[in-house]
Specification:
This protein is an alpha/beta fold and 311 residues long. It folds into two domains: 4-145 and 287-310, 3-Layer(aba) Sandwich (Rossmann fold), CATH 3.40.50.2020; 148-284, Rossmann fold (3-Layer(aba) Sandwich). It is built from nine helices and 14 strands. The protein has a seven-stranded mixed sheet with strand order 10-9-8-11-12-13-14, with helices on both faces. The protein has a five-stranded parallel sheet with strand order 1-4-5-6-7, sandwiched between helices. Strand 11 (212-220), helix 6 (224-235) and strand 12 (240-248) form a beta-alpha-beta unit. Helix 2 runs parallel beside helix 3. 43% of the residues are buried.
Length: 311
């Protein structure tokens, strides 16, 4: 079988090590240097000729994370790698996935174009902000689902008095999966924004009085939406409010917002490293899921079957 090489970018080294450990081999060697002006200069330290190469790198801000990934891919392509997969646990710039007003970019499409131009043959990620982003690529995309991480965790608890909530209309499909699997009701928090990261008004659609509520979302940036939803749900009579969120972007005053909110707990995955610890935040590992997906890709097995089995 063709050799497999697992490489890590600087931002995701902590996660790449977990993936490699679950896969059963060490990370391959790459030296990522910088010139004095910040220009990134990756040097692959071993042969990748003809190999299956996987570059593991989430792409939150700063943009240098994306640039580093593109340069690593280009280096492998020019070194005659056989097949290159960009493993992007958190796919940055995914929130700009459509032209919803005049003279704005479709940034998710631009990033897709850049990855293909750099030489990626495949992309693997978890929980795109919007499913249609898969259509921006003309190469295969393995779109893993965080349900395979969160649901086994939730199954350990008594959810007989629990209902699930979508923090906005766009998240209904995601939250409905949980409500269906755990056979619980679903409520919707309908929000109106006045500008990015700022919620003007929120209304709860459904009954939450006397219930424990789990909010389901794909990412938390300033955590404004989650915290506002928790406050409104408590006002409507919810007993306890927790949130599960795949990607802990947590920028700006996010940690302060969470600490001062009605949220009793925020459960996230490790696609992005936390910048500080919080008693309210629980981190679940995704390394095993990515390792299994990488193995199935290398062995030409189904990815869909992998996460469906975990559900």
């Amino acid at each position: 079988m063709v050799d497999i090489k697992l490489f890590s970018g600087q931002n995701s080294r902590y996660l790449a090590e977990k993936i490699a450990a679950n896969y059963g081999q060490n990370l391959s060697r790459i030296d990522i240097q910088k010139f004095s002006d910040g220009e990134i200069h990756p040097v692959i330290q071993e042969s990748v000729r003809g190999a299956y190469v996987f570059f593991i790198q989430s792409t939150p801000s700063p943009p240098s994370n994306i640039m580093e990934l593109l340069l690593m891919i280009d280096a492998a392509k020019r070194a005659s790698a056989g097949y290159i997969t960009a493993v992007i646990p958190y796919f940055g710039y995914a929130r700009q996935d459509r032209k919803d007003q005049p003279r704005v970019p479709i940034s998710a499409k631009l990033i897709a174009n850049l990855l293909e131009a750099a030489g990626a043959n495949r992309v693997m990620t978890m929980d795109f902000h919007a499913d249609q982003i898969q259509g921006f690529f003309d190469i295969p995309v393995d779109h893993l689902r965080s349900e395979a991480v969160f649901m086994p965790y939730l199954e350990k608890y008594d959810l007989s008095n629990t209902i699930f909530a979508a923090p906005d209309v766009g998240g209904v499909k995601r939250a409905r999966k949980y409500a269906k699997v755990f056979n619980t009701p679903l409520v919707i928090c309908d929000k109106q924004r006045i500008k990015p990261n700022e919620v003007a008004e929120m209304t709860v659609i459904g009954e939450v009085e006397g219930k424990d509520v789990i909010i389901v979302d794909d990412l938390a940036d300033t955590a404004g939406t989650l915290c506002r939803a928790a406050d409104v749900l408590k006002e409507k009579g919810a007993l306890n409010v927790i949130a599960i969120c795949t990607h802990p972007v947590l920028s700006g005053k996010a940690y302060e917002n969470i600490e001062n909110s009605q949220l009793s707990k925020l459960i996230v995955t490790d696609t992005i490293p936390l910048t500080k610890e919080s008693e309210k935040i629980t981190v679940l590992e995704s390394g095993r899921l990515f390792a299994r997906a990488i193995r199935n890709t290398h062995e030409h097995k189904s990815i869909a079957a992998l996460y469906l089995e975990d559900l």
